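Appendix B, Record 12. Input sequence as logged:
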Amino acid sequence: MVNTITAATTGTTGASSSSSSSEAGSALSSDFDTFLKMLTVQMQNQDPLNPIESSDYAVQLATFSQVEQSVITNDLLEGLSAQLGLMGFSELSGWVGMDARSEAAAYFDGASPVTLTGEFATAADTGVLIVRDADGAVVQKLTMVPTDHAFEWSGHDGNGDAFEAGLYSFEIENYHNGDYLSTTTVEGYSRIVEARSDDGDVVLVLAGGNEIGSDDVTALRDPS
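Logged structural output:
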């Protein structure tokens, strides 16, 4: 679905760039005709006893030429920028179906564990994984040994019952000898289900409806 949209968007942008260049060319041609008419009137009405130097005409022509070239260059740069943006979006559309790691809330489908990564405080000898639901309420606390930075949340409570499917966010509380040190962020993996362009920015839609920017992704993995 995304690739189809991208292809359609590419065609539309190309037509728009072509139309813009055509309009700019017409405007420049009209401006040049106006400039020549003004120059002719200036020559016809100059003081015959104190005529305008030919070098002055040359300066005016050179100035107009510089402005004309600047306008053309700006149009070319705008078109190139649009094409480069589409190329980047086309590449990002290949992320659809991949698992993206970010600080955004991760989606738990009610069965499969959620892969997480987190950093513990340097002096911590114990960590507590805090799990919050979509409303921000704490639904679980799990004691951890701060050794592995990659781990999984099973999505089950102490009785072995699965939590409801939905979005869950995570953080780690760090302790040393029972004393609280700090809270560190945890990143989770979620499936990318859509990529779209929003005012020139690429927006990735994750499973569960969460939306993040492409710059928010810190890692990608193939779910297979």
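Residues 2-44 form the longest helix (43 residues).
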